[in-house]
Design brief:
The chain is built from four helices and four strands. By secondary structure, the chain is an alpha+beta fold. The structure holds zinc ion (ZN).
Length: about 140
């Protein structure tokens, strides 16, 4: 996916983030994800798995985040998983997503999905730095 298209997606969500910020003075990415139909749970999962996202038949998603992740790292993983959803990766053939420390094992086009979701997360957290809470 072209970087420009991903930046456009980030711009779209940034508008919502700014509105959200005006209302409450802080932005909880988890609450924002819920508005997008992404239900976040924190849970113990096997070591090396940062998160798992599973699409539901209702078109919603469940994301399980490794409860050991904290602060910025956790927010980054959350933003990455949200990226998969908002960039439409599940409509493009991604069946479920396991966010692992090591992406090297993945084959194309999964690797492209991972790269794009990382870019989305980078851009979102860079642009939204002053709004998004890391707690
Ligand atoms: Zn991923």
């Amino acid at each position: 996916m072209k970087k420009e298209l991903i930046r456009k997606k980030v711009e779209e969500i940034m508008k919502e983030i700014e509105d959200y910020y005006k209302l409450s003075g802080t932005v909880d990415l988890q609450a924002l994800a819920l508005e997008k139909g992404v239900y976040i749970h924190n849970s113990k999962v096997p070591v090396k798995i940062n998160a798992l996202t599973i699409p539901l038949v209702t078109d919603d998603f469940v994301t399980i985040i490794n409860s050991k992740l904290r602060g910025r790292r956790r927010i980054y993983v959350l933003a990455h998983e949200l990226g998969h959803v908002l960039l439409g990766h599940y409509e493009k053939g991604l069946e479920a997503s396991a966010n692992l420390d090591d992406h090297k094992v993945l084959k194309q086009p999964l690797k492209n999905f991972e790269r794009d979701a990382d870019f989305f997360a980078d851009e979102l957290l860079k642009t939204g730095k002053k709004y998004i809470s890391t707690h």
